[in-house]
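Q: Predict the bound structure with zinc ion.
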Amino acid sequence: MGGRNSARHDISIVHSGWTSAYIHYTPTGGSWTTAPGVAMTAACTGWYVTTLDLGAATGLQAVFNNGSGTWDNNNSADYLISSGTSNVVSSTHAITSGNPCSATSNSLTVFYYNASTWSNVYMHYAPTGGSWTTAPGVAMTVECGNWHKKVITLGPATGAQLTFNNGSGAWDSNGGSNYQVGTGYIKVASGTVTANAVNPCLPIGTEPTLPYAQPADSAVPKRGCATIDDPAAPASTSINAVQVIYGYNAAWGNHYDDAAAVIAKIMDRVDWAIDESSDYEQHINFSCRHTDDGTYADYAKALVAPVLITSGTSSGQVRADLAAAGYSDTNRWYVVFADFDSQSDSYLCPTTGGYNCSSVVTDSWDTGVAGHEFGHLLGAGHAWMTETGHQYNPDIMLDWGNYWLYDTRNASYYDPSETAARFYIDPYSSTTKANIAAHPVLTTPVCCDVGANNDLLTAQERTTEADAPGASPTGYSAVGGATLTVTPAGSYAGVSASYFDGRRSLQVTTAASAASGYVITRQPVAVAGTTYKQFVRLRSATTTATVALRMQWFDSSGTLLSTTTSNSITLTSNWLEWRLTGTAPTGTATVQLGVIAPAQTSFTMNVDTQQLNRCDTVCRIET
Ligand SMILES: [Zn+2]
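A: Predicted complex:
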């Protein structure tokens, strides 16, 4: 006898409604099986599979049936199939090679915009190299509004041509040339094909690009699952973690299969934004439903739990439904992507999770909005600007949706370098403080990877928030006869309440006729040959005056090596940010920052939001 040849035959029952399938066959030159033949095994959706031993034969003749008298005999011609792996589609009688259920089977998801508002929409298609469906083709289902959807399996084909019709003779065949598409998600609207599309029924926003362009998606790392637990009933001993939820309702539909990956990508971007925002490595602990299989699609479904919202569409009703479904654990903080018209808002939960400790994100699913609400959830207030006429500040807590970095100016609510530091989150006279870097869902910060805000000053040196208004400020030294104080308390829009870092600033009254001002007493370590940048917000509280920024380089024995001084700066009553760039000379061990006025009439200035960046890898932008 010859060798063993194996033929594999897959049959689609998509259109027949069969719930079982048999193959009745004869190897070429051999005998027929006894009807109904050999039972096939359910494989992927709509397909049955079996592997047959043909002995010495190199092919077979076959018909298919459901075991109950319904037959597909290829319009009485039977199917003639060569050995190897083949698939047979009963609706078209097409025989092609390959296993449509194997990893190489290609899926095509088509979203079609029904501009003509047909009552019914059909898609008539042919996989590349394959046969056309029987007209009018396969029925599409309404996804939302005028959008209709169909998911088909192409087998090994890497594309298809499509046409659309209403089942009654009206066609959209792209002006007669048909729509040529690849695989994956395809959107067809008004004669235009969009490849790599996302479900047009999801409320996806525009990813922010300020203050820096975001890296390409491939550069955004998957955060991964920090713990595996029941999303609605995590163990009481579980670590503190974020549970991400897809909220849907009956009226707007359940798009979980498409939404999960979109949501996971947004939350991975939020995690990445936290990590990029400072000089420290820090991440979100996510709770997942199961251990993912390594694919992003499975990770997304492990990360994002679907929850049906029934009591209404407001964010309050979303929270009530979540609590009723068990999502109220004190070791969980919830981020809910609502797939209906709700409100984007958040409770501030800096220490304990549970009921109401959730962000709701609706309308614009993107890193800007989700990250803004997540910042609130961790305890951050807005990046306040209570005075008018300021330059814009590209901070995610200032203008949701447009910006993506946390605390782009001065660690006024996010400072992983000092997790014990706290910052006023609202203008004077609020006394609420936070530092979201200390939040229990975030990992312990690890220094130093030179993120966008790689600041070398302490929280007090940056913000002057440790001392009461009117008190003597710690961390600063007067130069040339100046006097220093913490800016006295003012009204909501007053100076001590003005700039968004919180409501405290340094006040310096210079001496007349002397080089007078202040320095930051502590001298941060500096490395010879490395470039540094000093930032400071300044305003004159009295009269127009001139000052200069100053960086003084010292060696390890405390001897001044040289001084880098800025051009003359004219101060007005408005807060503006100034900066000075300098490279540490040979022998440098430390640097001392200051602002010095040349000889002129005595005046009073306010100083705030100071930073010292090292610029060897990345240096904070200037605005
Ligand atoms: Zn807000």
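A: DSSP finds five helices and 42 strands in the chain.
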